[in-house]
Amino acid sequence: MQYISTRGRVEAKGFIDTVLMGLADDGGLMVPAEIPVVAEATLQKWKTLSYEELFLEIFSLYINDEIPIEELRQLVSRSYSSFRTPEVTPVHQLNDSLYILELFHGPTFAFKDVALQFMGEFYSYISKKQNKIIHILGATSGDTGAAAIQGVRGKEGIKICILHPHQKVSKVQELQMTTVDDENVLNLSVKGNFDDCQRVIKELFADLDFKGKYHLRAINSINFVRILAQTVYYFYAYLQINKGDQLPKINFCVPSGNFGNIFSGYLAKRMGLPVNKLIIATNENNILERFVKTGEYKPGEFKSTHSPSMDIQVASNFERYLYYFLGEDTAKVSAYMQDLQQNGKITVSQEDLAKVQQDFAAYGASNEQCLEVIEEYKKTYDYLLDPHTACGIAACKAQASEGEVTVTFATAHPAKFDEAIRLVGITQQFPPQIEHLFTLPQHQKVVEHDKAEIVRELEAFYKL
Ligand SMILES: *Cc1c(COP(=O)(O)O)cnc(C)c1O
User: Fold this and answer.
1) 98-102 and 346-347 beta bridge pairing
2) 51 touches 59 (CB < 8 A)
3) Which entry of 53, 97, 127, 186 is 20 to 30 Å from 8 by CA?
4) For residue 260, how far is its CA from the centre of ligand 1 (angstroms)?
5) Does residue 361 have a pLDDT over 90?
6) Which of 112, 168, 211, 378 is catalytic?
7) Is 229's C-beta closer than 6 angstroms to any atom of ligand 1?
8) Domain containing 306 — which CATH number?
9) Domain count of the chain?
10) Is 264 among the domain residues?
11) What is the rounded CA–CA span in Å between residue 431 and residue 64?
């Protein structure tokens, strides 16, 4: 399997080089040259596999023979040994038509752990095997940073620097990042919002001299390995629910921000997973909802909501979808992306909009709805949703039809977002791992939203 850029100006690469490159050198995103299709008979066989075995099957379709299978097995086993359940992502049934896929059983209690625990092991493996320095640089709205830091803390040959928006992440997210005292970790708390942080990161990665000189590696979901790791639980959830001989279609409803998680679902569908609707759930930062409803992709005004990990206006992975939607035409993708940069928006034709609406449904939950859903589900099912998952449930209610079965993703544990839970008047008991964080000292540096200052901090850190 070869990988190419959505903008068509990068030589085809293998899997390892694709992961190391992160953002494509031409500013695009890396995608597989061809999506492998899984036959129905193979899906039937996969029904009895454990999570880790399923992971190996799916990755084997994508990594050629670049990592010997026994070594890959060890990486996978180490990655998921840090989860609190051997199922990794257990399915919880609420009623006949609604299942919750719990993606928060990893070390930092959010779905990012599923891909980033593996990515940490993967980078460590490459660093040793190829004798490469790995300097991870990333921006976070809270959960990616925490998960990435947990994935590589204390690992030899790797340094990690994470930018987060100053005082715009939840208390628990901040503690998860800043209480880590390993020397290979630097937290920069940037006076700005997430989009500001991400813009600086994108500029630094686009500066190929800087990227090369400092061996920069990405952990954001622009990295294809994250997308691929996330397809595993779409298959796993599906196979857990459909144990019988039939393979009926089901809906997936995914709380979305950067379009990474839901894009993994799109990939799974293209691989042959019987998916009915892919429902994009957002909060009041609803660029994706507006796109699916009107065909106009246009960043709006940034809003702070109860679900801060989805407070995103520019959805990085959107370009991957654009690529497939435009019939894998890299010249067209480049033109659309240039349009976005110059005119601040992309508009697709009515005919194309109909295609988008075949691929996705979308709904943006208001702050009020989010809290109402948390209260309702606590009362009805005695199940406490985190505010991101609550946006997912609101979207599921709006977009799933009678008779359809939907799996809504629980992207975080409610303890991470106690600020919202308290607003509903619910007092929750924190898991001991989170309780413990409040007793630890914090390590972070507050910086202006200024590229030059951030570069100075980075250079000092890399020279250590
Ligand atoms: C990151 C995150 C999201 C958004 O996921 P994307 O892949 O960026 O769309 C949703 N919920 C939670 C809790 C998250 O951490």
Assistant:
1) unpaired
2) no
3) 127
4) 8
5) yes
6) 112
7) no
8) 3.40.50.1100
9) 1
10) yes
11) 40
Identify whether 248 is part of a domain. yes
Asked if residue 99 lies in contact with residue 241, where contact means CB atoms within 8 angstroms, the answer is: yes
Whether 150 lines ligand 1, by a CB cut-off of 6 Å, is no
Q: Does position 97 have pLDDT exceeding 80, yes or no?
A: yes
Q: Does residue 350 lie within any of the structural domains?
A: yes
Query: pTM of the entire structure?
Result: 0.95
In contact, 1 and 64? CB cutoff 8 Å:
yes
Name the pairing type of β-strands 360-364 and 275-282: parallel
Q: Is 71 part of a structural domain of the chain?
A: no
Residue in the structure block whose two tokens are 């901040």 = 174
Q: Is 412 in the pocket of ligand 1 (CB under 6 A)?
A: yes
The owner of tokens 């106690």 is 418
Amino acid in the structure at residue 82: S
pLDDT at 153: 96
Give the tokens for residue 100: 């919750």
Cα distance between residue 185 and residue 151, in whole Å: 11
> How sure is the predictor about 358, in pLDDT bands with cuts at 50, 70 and 90?
very high
Ligand 1 pocket: which of 162, 262, 309, 320 to mutate (most atoms within 8 A of CB): 309
Domain range for 239 is: 91-109+225-423
342 CA → ligand 1 middle, Å: 28
Q: Please check whether residue 124 is in contact with residue 135, taking contact to mean a CB–CB distance below 8 angstroms.
A: no
Q: Output the CA 254–ligand 1 centroid distance in Å.
A: 9
- C-alpha 463 to ligand 1 mean position (Å): 33
Q: Shortest CA distance to 84 belongs to which of 123, 58, 113, 125?
A: 113
**Catalytic site residue 112?**
yes
Tens-digit pLDDT profile for residues 393-431: 999 999 999 999 999 999 999 999 999 999 999 999 999
Give the model's pLDDT for residue 59.
98
411, 417, 421, best to mutate for ligand 1 pocket (most atoms within 8 Å of CB):
411
Nearest CA to ligand 1 atom 1: 309
Is the beta carbon of 305 within 6 A of some atom in ligand 1?
Answer: no
